[in-house]
Amino acid sequence: xxxxxxxxxxxRIYNRAAWDKQVENGNEWTVPFSDQxxxxxxxxxxxxxxxxxxxxxRDWFRELDGLDVLCLAxxxxxxxxxxxxAGARVTVFDNSPRxxxxxxxVTQKHNLELTTVEGGMRDLGVFQSESYDLIFHPVSxxxxxxxxxxxxxxxxxxxxxxxxxxxIVNPIMYTFDNxxxxxxxxxxxxxxxxxxxxxxxxAGKARYRWRG
Length: 212
Fold this sequence. Notes:
Elements: H1 7-25, H2 35-42, E1 68-72, H3 79-85, E2 89-94, H4 97-110, E3 114-118, E4 132-137, H5 148-157, E5 158-166, H6 178-184, H7 204-211
Parallel strand pairs: 1-2, 1-4, 2-3, 4-5
């Protein structure tokens, strides 16, 4: 259990509660994929997102059958089950217990080779070095205050001939008025870079979006 008395763990606790709440609210990134999607993955017909809208090219992936894959901060019942359906041995590592429930539900229903582990992405100490052929890391590291520990830990658990696929948010996104974008579809610069939450008062919706 994280210690809320340390700044490092406070961030993890905050984000965990926020994403558990998103599951309750039915956020699109927390809804497990349908039976049809998983069945398609087993037939070799599949696609997944690394960022928010554009499916990844299939030729970015090696042959998945038998590969050890870590879905890092990716517990949504979506990418992990698809990769497992396509033949990989998948570990889904995420900070949100409620999101991991989605992965377990799909795994049990489809008898997938998928394991879930709860934890913060800056500490992968539960895994041995050089454990994974592929790390799939969608846009999620915006939820941690320092990124170097994430890269260091990913490098440690990745095999020397392995691959890491990571989704990154362009910092220019933080300059826009998100409330205006959501309500009026108007893109207007409002904030300066580098963006800091303690210098700006964001609406709750935007705060959930950027901090997880």
